[in-house]
């Protein structure tokens, strides 16, 4: 991991720091999707990238009220930075499972990976290659769908896949922006 970054702690001072930063960025205490994009400097995305940010927002919005409040914000930061690997994999699964039916099909994985590529820009394989490779490696019963169990077991068993998924869907750069407030001073 290299040098230790400052992680969100559980201390009152640390919480206060996050709270004041959150309130400065979001005085209403409720972060809308529009504000979320603005905070990350991602207003000018193509439709694919837009879709992905909306999915990330929806997964962070635990009570599905259309806003991210401070507690949801802290939960997201803690999960992405300090979460155990199986927690992260469950979170990724939820992110890919666009229709919420408890399975990921190729179309869902393809669209989310294409969206991530649109934002991150760097990749050494196409969305199709990535999707086919994942299904080839971890769709054990070859039914064209991945259950949460297949997904977690498959990824945990394959180090290369784990690294690829963790890198591709790394949100820590998103959270660094939130932490450091890369908002353009007005």
UniProtKB/TrEMBL annotation:
<keyword id="KW-0106">Calcium</keyword>
<keyword id="KW-0449">Lipoprotein</keyword>
<dbReference type="Pfam" id="PF13499">
    <property type="entry name" value="EF-hand_7"/>
</dbReference>
<feature type="domain" description="EF-hand">
    <location>
        <begin position="84"/>
        <end position="119"/>
    </location>
</feature>
<dbReference type="Pfam" id="PF00036">
    <property type="entry name" value="EF-hand_1"/>
</dbReference>
<dbReference type="InterPro" id="IPR018247">
    <property type="entry name" value="EF_Hand_1_Ca_BS"/>
</dbReference>
<keyword id="KW-0677">Repeat</keyword>
<dbReference type="InterPro" id="IPR011992">
    <property type="entry name" value="EF-hand-dom_pair"/>
</dbReference>
<keyword id="KW-0479">Metal-binding</keyword>
<keyword id="KW-0519">Myristate</keyword>
<dbReference type="InterPro" id="IPR028846">
    <property type="entry name" value="Recoverin"/>
</dbReference>
<dbReference type="GO" id="GO:0001750">
    <property type="term" value="C:photoreceptor outer segment"/>
</dbReference>
<dbReference type="InterPro" id="IPR002048">
    <property type="entry name" value="EF_hand_dom"/>
</dbReference>
<dbReference type="GO" id="GO:0005509">
    <property type="term" value="F:calcium ion binding"/>
</dbReference>
<feature type="domain" description="EF-hand">
    <location>
        <begin position="126"/>
        <end position="161"/>
    </location>
</feature>
<protein>
    <submittedName>
        <fullName>GUC1C protein</fullName>
    </submittedName>
</protein>
<feature type="domain" description="EF-hand">
    <location>
        <begin position="48"/>
        <end position="83"/>
    </location>
</feature>
<dbReference type="GO" id="GO:0008048">
    <property type="term" value="F:calcium sensitive guanylate cyclase activator activity"/>
</dbReference>
